[in-house]
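User: I'm putting together a teaching handout on how sequence relates to shape, and I'd like one worked example. Could you take Arsenite efflux ATP-binding protein ArsA from Herbihabitans rhizosphaerae, show the sequence you're using, and then write out its predicted structure as tokens right after it?

Assistant: Happy to. First the sequence, then the structure tokens directly below it.
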Amino acid sequence: MSVLDIDKLIDDPDTRVLVCCGSGGVGKTTTAAALALRAAERGRKTVVLTIDPARRLAQSLGLRELGNTPKTVAVEGFSPKGELSAMMLDMRRTFDDMVLAHAGEQRAKEVLANPFYKTISSSFSGTQEYMAMEKLGQLAAEGSWDLIIVDTPPSRSALDFLDAPQRMSRALDGRMIKLLSAPGRAGGWGIRKVVGAGFTLFAKAVGTIVGGQMLADASAFVQAFDGMFGGFRERARKTYELLRSGGTAFLVVAAPEPDALREASYFTERLESESMPLAGLVVNRTHPLLAGLTATKALAAADELDGGAPLAAAVLRLHADRVAVAQREKRLVSRFTKAHPSVAVTHVPAMPSDVHDLEGLREIGLRLAGG
């Protein structure tokens, strides 16, 4: 197992995009922010894109709030060699901006006002992941930063981020979409040509399930949106190619827990199968031993001290518990490294409290770099 050199990764001018991925709740947001801060302080012009609904990143960076466009971090006492900007994805706003940019004025108005659009732009499965990739593509095309760090959405599965473009494309190419858009393309009779006389029964059945008004809204949305489908697919393709390029690196973030490391293993295999550049694994919130005393000796000493020095005995028992945790974490990580011996790994010891300021992020960055 090789050690992941974080500073070498973020200092390399060829590294243009760094994607932090992993299952939910493993510390991706804090990791992304700490990496961005460290990169800026080491001279990179960096922007970090987060998808954190708790808005912790803004607070940690000393900002009142983050919006859907990058905001420069300029707070007292922060004078990096490079530059740091941050933003938080607004899924609905990104979708709206995309419609406005790629549809005519009248068509954009029709789409934005459609109730079905309002539903899918905020709650359709995969929309958040798709919009994260859309925003990444926009930031890369803008060319204002030499390093873009992405905190991927808190999905149930880390694979959702990579699957979103294909899933969206499949939805846009699906039979239902073709049926709903057919009237606009064929003077109102296109659907009948596709499904024949059975359409009435089809429409009645679907209307019963989803509601007649929703079906009508969906049909109106698809017809107004019809000419933009190709643009969706093309932008998704370009962003997907960006993720496969030599300037992109993926960092898989995991907690030292079975589910998180299993998810990290799945993601690693997926990246390898699609020839995507994996930089390494960050094992977050570990509990390394602070002394060489074994658990057995610590417990034995605690038993002897119980009567005369209860505080010392309690400390020894806490140490024994920590030894057990550290050994368990070591076993879990070793399973990953045995399955993926070529993947570089770094361990980030848990902080004593939640990170809520630049100093905390700076300390996380130091721990990421092995300091």
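A couple of points you could highlight for students: The CA atoms of residues 21 and 95 lie 22 Å apart. The first helix runs from residue 6 to 11.
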